[in-house]
Structure to design on (599 residues):
């Protein structure tokens, strides 16, 4: 079950971050400028594991669900959930690719693999490497992590991950908001009576029930890369929270559980 | 005011900056006025009186877990000319010690300031034994008692200053210590209403933790085109009856909201004003109904009890559909 949940997060939450990477990094868009194509990724039959990366002359979009498999130029198929999970976790697990399609679109395949590798921006790094990240890289990491965390919570709740479901079941209409200083980096999770939704930006229709406000991009970067401990994050004002302290704690614990689930891979 | 913590609960009051404000204010008042002393029933840390104890060890008294004694001792201290500030959980100050408040303090007109913390469901996890939803009704009913209900730590500090400046018994109702301040910092004047948001279609009267909920609900309703006035009522007694009547005449649609029973609380008080003045207005009263709420997180209990942002927004939406006769013209026609 954990592998399936992770695979769903990878296809529904992590892959769509490629759209953000292509939008935020001009070098990525430039490298894909002359390319068009659709690369589908699917898990074993009946597991509802399907997505497609669509490259259209510099822009990238990700479609999710079985319909995304139609008209793919290249389809990467995983024979079981475990191998799909392992592939995204960076362990040796290669998909099978219909030989003919691979031969017909070698450039598309190679550039898609390279595009996927750009998500390594999310990977943990030693402190000295983190210190070398420039402002744009730090902002991108922060943006991606906030989008990832919120969307993963929503995806996992929808897919039945109990700790994520708990925060939505029977809940009044509540918004959990993350924001970063004066930047446009923000994301939220909205829950109401068992329903859950993640979104980017500031939720406009009501004030947050709980808000996590990072002081600025650098502060957020320090917190999410664990360069600042939880206590330091608060005592130095890198992040402030407002709203119900109990639910601040619940959401914090949920984030830790999601983190643990993803690291099981 | 932001919570400076991550995993703390209501028991960790030292880490909640909003409630720090009044603990600091009390120390400052102690410096200014040597008559100020504090009395606790073994809740010095959680009620912030320990700060005063550290600053003025010979002006602080701990009577042990004995709330009736707490109030009686304070009345005695006041009889000598001191200004005792008594602080314990609202439910203990007003229910367990009720007769002592009435007879020793109010009947004798002793200059005692009773601070009831964790009022309403602010200590929701403590269950019904620690929920205080009758305190305002009781204190309002006692002759000579002034009843204040600030909505956040900042206003609490100002209210405490006003209470000590006032000659006579005062009950100050305080919540949890994490309430979000609304509006700019303002001086506290006993008996004054505070309009936090202008509007003419309806008015919400609130105090304590519900003030922020009222503002949020008004913001939401505003998106549907309605303008809602939000009025904080930090003084429940003496009530600004004239001000309430004027607002009732202007808006005709009123919602009262409180983390307190609708019997004897702000809802009752506003309804009394409207009825006495003969104003044609609809009054919806949100608050504790005739039941005990279970143990739980305060925000959840406020939702369950029907006195949170959602309940206010719903009441406002319902009121928009109500036709209210507005003819208040009593001049004889020509």
């Amino acid at each position: 079950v954990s592998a399936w949940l992770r695979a769903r997060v990878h296809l529904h939450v992590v892959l769509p971050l490629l759209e953000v990477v292509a939008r935020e990094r001009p070098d990525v868009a430039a490298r894909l400028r002359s390319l068009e194509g659709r690369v589908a990724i699917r898990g074993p039959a009946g597991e509802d594991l399907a997505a497609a990366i669509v490259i259209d002359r510099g822009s990238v979009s990700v479609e999710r669900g079985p319909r995304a498999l139609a008209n793919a130029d290249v389809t990467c198929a995983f024979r079981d959930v475990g191998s799909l999970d392992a592939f995204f976790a960076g362990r040796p697990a290669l998909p099978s690719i219909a030989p003919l399609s691979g031969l017909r679109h070698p450039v598309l395949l190679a550039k898609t693999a390279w595009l996927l590798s750009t998500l390594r921006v999310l990977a943990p790094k030693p402190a000295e490497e983190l210190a070398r990240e420039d402002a744009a890289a730090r902002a991108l990491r922060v943006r991606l992590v906030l989008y990832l965390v919120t969307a993963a919570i929503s995806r996992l709740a929808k897919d039945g991950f109990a700790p994520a479901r708990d925060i939505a079941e029977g809940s009044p209409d509540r918004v959990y908001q993350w924001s970063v200083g004066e930047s446009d980096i923000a994301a939220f999770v909205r829950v109401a009576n068992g329903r859950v939704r993640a979104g980017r930006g500031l939720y406009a229709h009501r004030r947050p029930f709980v808000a996590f406000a990072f002081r600025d991009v650098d502060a957020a970067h320090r917190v999410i890369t664990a360069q600042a401990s939880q206590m330091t994050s608060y005592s130095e004002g890198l992040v402030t929270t407002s709203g119900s302290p109990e639910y601040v704690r619940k959401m914090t614990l949920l984030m830790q559980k999601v983190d643990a689930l993803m690291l099981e891979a | 005011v932001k919570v400076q913590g991550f995993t703390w609960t209501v028991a960790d009051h030292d880490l909640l900056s909003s409630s720090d404000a009044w603990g600091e204010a009390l120390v400052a008042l102690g410096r200014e006025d040597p008559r100020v002393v504090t009395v606790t029933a073994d809740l010095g840390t959680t009620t912030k009186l320990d700060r005063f104890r550290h600053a003025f060890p010979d002006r602080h008294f701990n009577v042990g877990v004995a709330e009736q004694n707490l109030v009686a001792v304070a009345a005695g201290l006041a009889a000598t000319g001191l200004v005792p500030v008594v602080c314990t959980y609202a439910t203990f100050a007003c229910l367990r010690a009720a007769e002592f408040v009435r007879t020793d303090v109010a009947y004798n007109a002793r200059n005692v300031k009773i601070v009831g913390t964790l009022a309403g469901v602010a200590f929701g996890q403590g269950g019904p034994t620690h929920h205080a939803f009758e305190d305002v009704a009781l204190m309002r009913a006692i002759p000579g008692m002034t009843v204040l209900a600030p909505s956040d730590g900042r206003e609490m500090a100002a209210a405490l200053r006003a209470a000590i400046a006032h000659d006579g018994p005062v009950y100050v109702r305080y919540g949890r210590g994490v309430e979000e301040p609304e509006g700019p910092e303002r001086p506290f004047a006993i008996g004054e209403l505070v309009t936090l948001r202008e509007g003419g279609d309806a008015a919400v009267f609130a105090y304590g933790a519900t003030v922020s909920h009222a503002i949020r609900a008004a913001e939401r309703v505003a998106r549907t085109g309605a303008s809602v006035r939000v009025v904080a009522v930090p003084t429940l007694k003496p009530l600004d009856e004239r001000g309430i009547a004027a607002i009732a005449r202007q808006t005709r649609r009123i919602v009262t909201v409180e983390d307190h029973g609708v019997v004897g609380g702000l809802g009752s008080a506003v309804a009394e004003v409207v009825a006495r003045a003969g104003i044609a207005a609809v009054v919806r009263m949100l608050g504790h109904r005739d039941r005990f709420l279970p143990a739980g997180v305060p925000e959840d209990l406020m939702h369950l009890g029907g006195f949170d942002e959602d309940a206010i927004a719903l009441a406002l939406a319902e009121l928009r559909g109500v036709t209210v006769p507005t003819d208040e013209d009593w001049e004889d026609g020509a």
The radius of gyration of chain B is 20 Å. The first strand of chain B starts at residue 36 and ends at 40.
